[in-house]
Amino acid sequence: MQYFLGIESTAHTFGVSVVSTSGAKPTVKNTKVESNEIAKFPSTKEGYIPRKLADHHVKQFPLLLEAALKKAKIKAKDLDAIAFSQGPGIGHCLHVGYVAAKTLSEELRVPLIPVNHAVAHVESSRFLTEAKDPLVVYVSGGNTQIFSRLGKHYHVYGETMDVGLGNFLDNVGRVLKLDPPDAVGVLKAAVQGKNFVDLPYTIKGMNLAFSGILTSIQRLKSFSVPDLCWSAQETVFSMLVEATERCLCHTRNPEILLCGGNARNRRLQQMMALMAEEQGARFCVAADEFNGDNAAMIALTGLLMFRHGALPRRETPLQRMRVETQEISW
Ligand code: FE2
């Protein structure tokens, strides 16, 4: 049995996870997420301050490491490799994860595996849902991208031209002073929405733009907050499903894989699944636990990279990284 530790620290969430595997080729059957501990810095009206996030992560590291090892019923000396989020993310936060991972790997004399956080969202979901060759819809705070594999790399067909879907919904939550002031607040309010409000619907080719919707919401004072939240969600999800469907008609991937923090939204899942069914593609989405930022996705992807000798030359954090740069050799 081999044990891989994962450390996640790209933004507001710090996480530590232990993944075990007993096979030469990792599969869902011979690989187990033993623990997946997370601590999230609460969302605030003024957004996130990098220094405060880093302080939070520094405090959480020893607590979560202890909890993750205890749940996995192992000691630190049993670990075979340490994987961590190299980027993309907030510099202050990334450095906490890097220093924690580097210190552990030096002390235990085990390999250090730098993992691209975006690739981890995709590859852990692909591994867990056993999707073979999916058209990926990656939706999180800072990202909204539609892509699939071409050879050993991902090729991005469409993406946001301004903010990511998650950050857009967080901004709606802040502008409308919701509780909590983020995407969760929007989701809670949207359930009560009854009347659809026309909002800008911007698709350029396969790319999407969300900022105009936020500007409109700030001006439309005569509509109720639930109606605005429901309409904003319906509009952006429709845009995303339309671009994905158009893309699928060209690529004909056998599966659609929805991943990233906003993949947990049931309405988005429902809309994407309906379109997938109409197009004859299998709809795949991992459990909620693995779609929000978490460390199991880092440990799982680190395991795949390590087993396939796909380790990057550079190990220090990178604030900007894209999915296309990672060679997927598995
Ligand atoms: Fe993420």
Please sum up the structure shown:
The chain is an alpha/beta fold and 330 residues long. It is 41% helix and 22% strand. The strands form three sheets. A five-stranded mixed β-sheet has the order 3-2-1-4-5, with helices on both faces. The chain has a five-stranded mixed β-sheet with strand order 8-7-6-11-12, sandwiched between helices. Strands 9-10 form a two-stranded antiparallel sheet.
Which SSEs are present, and which pair or pack?
Blueprint: E1 2-8, E2 13-21, E3 31-40, H1 50-72, E4 81-87, H2 91-108, E5 112-116, H3 117-129, E6 134-139, E7 144-150, E8 153-159, H4 165-175, H5 183-190, E9 202-204, E10 207-209, H6 211-219, H7 225-251, E11 255-259, H8 266-279, E12 282-285, H9 296-307
Bound molecules: fe (ii) ion.
Residues 117, 121, 140, 260-261, 293 line the site of fe (ii) ion (FE2).
The oligomerization state is: single chain
Strand order of the largest sheet: 3-2-1-4-5
Helix content: 40-55%
Extract low-pLDDT stretches: none
Report the bound ligands by name, code or SMILES. fe (ii) ion
Mean pLDDT metric: 96
Distance between the termini: 21 Å
How much β-strand is present in the residues?
A: 15-25%
Q: Biggest sheet: strands, sense, closure?
A: 5 strands, mixed
Question: Based on CA inertia axes, which overall geometry fits?
Answer: globular
